[in-house]
Amino acid sequence: MANDNRFSLVTTCSGHSSARAGELATAHGKVPTPVFLPVGSQATVRTLTPQDLRDIGIAMLLANSYHLYLRPGIPEVEKMGGLHRFMAWDGAILTDSGGYQIFSLSPLSKVTDEGVAFRSHIDGSQHFITPETAIQFQEALGADIIMVLDECPPGDASFGRVRRAMNRTHLWAARCQQAHQRTDQALYAIVQGGTSLELRRRSAEHLTSLGFAGYAIGGLSLGEPKEVTWGVVEETVPLLPGDRPRYLMGVGSPEDIIEAVSRGVDVFDSALPTRVARNGALFTRRGRVNIENSRYLRMEGPVDSDCGCYTCRTFSAAYLHHLFNSGELLALRLATIHNLTFMADLMRDIRVAILGGTFDSFKNDFLKTYQPTDEKVRLEQKQRWLTRGRQADC
Amino acid sequence: MANDNRFSLVTTCSGHSSARAGELATAHGKVPTPVFLPVGSQATVRTLTPQDLRDIGIAMLLANSYHLYLRPGIPEVEKMGGLHRFMAWDGAILTDSGGYQIFSLSPLSKVTDEGVAFRSHIDGSQHFITPETAIQFQEALGADIIMVLDECPPGDASFGRVRRAMNRTHLWAARCQQAHQRTDQALYAIVQGGTSLELRRRSAEHLTSLGFAGYAIGGLSLGEPKEVTWGVVEETVPLLPGDRPRYLMGVGSPEDIIEAVSRGVDVFDSALPTRVARNGALFTRRGRVNIENSRYLRMEGPVDSDCGCYTCRTFSAAYLHHLFNSGELLALRLATIHNLTFMADLMRDIRVAILGGTFDSFKNDFLKTYQPTDEKVRLEQKQRWLTRGRQADC
Predict the structure, then answer these.
(1) Is residue A386, in this structure, part of any structural domain at all?
(2) Which of A168, B64, B327, B390 is the most buried (most CB within 10 A)?
(3) CA distances, B41 to each of A63, A96, B69, B83, B236 (Å)
(4) A322 contacts in B (CB within 8 Å)?
(5) Residues B40 and B129 occupy one common structural domain
(6) Is residue A292 part of a domain?
(7) Are A252 and A295 in a shared domain?
(8) Count of domains in chain A?
(9) Which residue is closest to B321 within chain A, CA to CA?
(10) The CATH number of the domain where B163 resides is what?
(11) Cβ of A304: how many Cβ atoms within 10 Å?
(12) What is the pLDDT of residue B386?
């Protein structure tokens, strides 16, 4: 691993939690951790320009090599000078390898030890990706952090299938490591093993024995109950090396991030804040509010009086309500700016609390005030999203 | 008319045209003319923030009292401090009275001398608007320039119907004038008379005898051939007082604006540049291009190398092609920024040419290079737009 992609651990909480503050040094700037990465699958964080992202305070975003491989094509992005130049973003980028997307989006996929054959969810065309090509594609895109190709079985897969997928993920991780040549990119492994603590332990131990620049925990947030998620995280994190970043893939609600940070996770990504923004659900420190509710029709103040984002600085809740109610496109952008600012502010506050030794009380205060979305509603929404219409977001 | 809404004529062409440069002084800034107003019917120019509009160089925009009356409601905007504060736009605003929208959007409308009864195109609710309430609403919204309530018959109406509508528009114009109280707003009359030069003459003469701060030409661009449009404009403009602004409603293609400027028109509005932008049609000095065309897949340069807008400064044509091709929302905003910048630059160049005494050659050069959209395609698209789906834009 080259020096320009180094993780520095700044401090670990001395209280009841394992929360830690650190910094990722990349060729595209320093990224303080814990960090939340907005999702820009198709080389754009939906509705926002790079300037918007900078103004919000985003240091790193996630893009998706599966989406970019299918459209516009890896050679096309490479010809434009790579992903940073293509999307005019000079901050840091992490690309996912496509494993999760192939298994969740493709109508037909067939996996062997060699690689995975799948059909495009866009036009049905046939494709075959191996660990080697997954790395080759990500090297061509040129993100600062890239991910191994993994096999991610569905949340309800049998123990046998989960174990086979884990073993294949281990095999592929070694081949990805072998194939990886660019020294200015950090390669992260992905711990699999479903909801089995035994498999998770084996996966963490195996992958750390190979030695990666960072470790992700994959295969969670797939509809399982929250206590199962935290059980897996608590089992896995202590087995990962303390001097490497830990990345919990696909987790992005404010309350979940706080819970995961307290268990020692450093990096997060999720389409949740941007997706719910486009449905009119705006984050506040008291929980999500629905801006389409008629109580906002005449509200002169901003949606969130604690927020300093462009949307809250500039517009009344009544105006935002009007835009949503009238089906105006500006609504989507203003809501996205707000929710991503909320996330960026939250991560900054979390880090300040960790550095100041007050994370335990910060976490308690936050969770006392923040009303999470009803668990039943959350699981229903998640299930709906997992079974249809998620092409747009994952 | 108060001093803060004064039109100053700066110069009139000495060449073959009647083109003129002027300035509208409003309580929300000076507006150099000729000027093109982007359409923000629902208190938003679709996809753009006020900051975007400022960056583009927009000095005045058009909003629609019909749309705002129905949603969120005039009292709601008034409670928020008026339209400027509601939409956080401190530049100048012109509001249309709603006449055109009632007759074109409402599924059922019934007009008498008293006023017009109509059903909302949104929820079918019943409404009744009179010249007096049209003014009252526009005074509550607080735009810098407001319009009389007019009756705008369809393009294929009989001579008798057009004449009756014209006479009623005259009656209503006098009542609007009577009802108008705010001295910081300029009230413009609307010349009607369809395609009849005789009726247009009578309308222009009658309305100028009443004395308004400005004069619009309404009831054009309704599907009639271009030579008919120009015939009416050429007949009407010389009958309007030289020291008052002339506003050609609903005209907004680059070539039409140049033709109208050369006939002495000062003010334009149209949803065309923003609407076609959202369909991937981008203006260049050579004509409209379709960014979805596959020849842009690998184009490294900007869409328009002559353009200095944020989109062209920041992104390749290939990236814009990718965004449109992938159905990404950012595409709509970037294309809108480009097309409105094209319009703002065009109006600035027109004005510079008028002031420099070179408008005739500017016009010739522009029209020689600019490939207008095929007339047959244009009329078909216009007809499609007039018969469906225009709620969004007019």
Answers:
(1) no
(2) B64
(3) 35, 41, 11, 12, 27
(4) 42-43, 71-72, 76, 86
(5) yes
(6) yes
(7) no
(8) 2
(9) A72
(10) 3.20.20.105
(11) 20
(12) 66
- Tell me if B49 and A330 make a contact (CB, 8 A cut-off): yes
| Chain segment A331-383, per-residue pLDDT in tens | 999 999 999 999 999 999 999 999 999 999 999 999 999 998 776 666 776 67
Mean pLDDT per block of 10 residues along chain B (394 residues) reads 75 92 97 98 98 98 97 97 98 94 83 94 94 98 98 93 97 98 97 98 98 97 93 98 97 97 98 97 95 96 96 98 98 98 98 97 96 74 61 47
Q: What is the DSSP string of B62-78?
A: EEEHHHHHHTT-HHHHH
The residues of A assigned a catalytic role are 96, 269
What are the chain A neighbours of B313 within 8 Å (beta carbons)?
A: none
Distance from CA of A307 to the nearest CA of B (A): 17
Residue that is written with structure tokens 């005789």 in the block: B198
Please check whether residues A191 and A161 belong to one and the same domain. yes
Give residue-wise pLDDT tens across range A46-95.
Answer: 999 999 999 999 999 999 999 999 999 999 999 999 999 999 999 999 99
Long-range contacts of A156-161 (CB under 8 A, 24+ apart): A156/A223, A157/A194, A159/A194, A159/A196
Give A-chain residues touching B316 at CB under 8 angstroms.
80, 86
Cα dihedral value B218, B219, B225, B229, nearest 10: -30
In A, minimum Cα distance to B67 occurs at A326
Q: Does residue B148 form part of some domain? A: yes
CA distance readout (Å), A216 to A143, A151, A388, B152: 16, 13, 26, 64
The residues of B annotated as belonging to the active site are 96, 269
Is the pLDDT reported for residue A3 higher than 60? no
How far is C-alpha B156 from the geometric centre of its chain's CA atoms?
A: 22
Residue A377 is which amino acid?
V
Question: A125 and A182 share a domain?
Answer: yes
Q: Which range marks the domain in which residue B126 is found? A: 3-276
CA distance to partner chain B, nearest, from residue A326 (Å): 7
Of the candidates B142, B137, B76, which has an alpha carbon nearest to the alpha carbon of residue B102? B137
B383 CB neighbour count, 10 Å cutoff: 12
Regarding whether A291 and A267 lie in a shared domain, the answer is no
> Quick one: B216 and B305 in the same domain?
no
Q: What is the pLDDT of residue B366?
A: 97
Give the three-state DSSP class for B19: coil
Alpha helices, H only, chain A: 50-56, 65-70, 74-79, 83-86, 99-105, 131-141, 159-179, 197-210, 226-236, 254-262, 272-278, 310-314, 317-325, 330-356, 359-369, 375-387
DSSP state of B302: -
Secondary-structure percent of chain A, ordered helix, strand, coil, rounded to 5: 45, 20, 35
CA dist., res. A210 & res. A220, Å (int): 22
In angstroms, the separation between the Cα of residue A379 and the nearest Cα of chain B is 27
- Give the model confidence (pLDDT) of A219-259 as tens digits: 999 889 999 999 999 999 999 999 999 999 999 999 999 99
Q: Which of these, A110, A106, A141, lies nearest to A123 by C-alpha position?
A: A106
Same domain, residue pair B153 and B294? no
Q: Which residues of B touch A (CB under 8 A)?
A: 42-44, 46-51, 67, 71-72, 76, 79-80, 86-88, 297-298, 300, 310, 314-316, 318-319, 321-323, 325-326, 328-330, 332-334
Compute CA B262 distance to the chain's CA centroid, rounded to the nearest angstrom: 17
Choosing from B241, B276, B311, the residue where a domain stops is B276
ipTM confidence: 0.95
Helix (H, G, I), strand (E, B) or coil at B271: coil
pTM of the model: 0.95
CA distance B325 to A42: 11
- What is residue A107's predicted lDDT score, i.e. its pLDDT? 75
A211 and A329 fall within a common domain: no
For tokens 């409402």, the residue is B106
Domain end residue (candidates: B250, B276, B302): B276
Answer whether A318 sits within 8 Å of B43, measured CB to CB: no
Chain B interface disruption, residue of A328, A332, A336, most B CBs within 10 A: A328
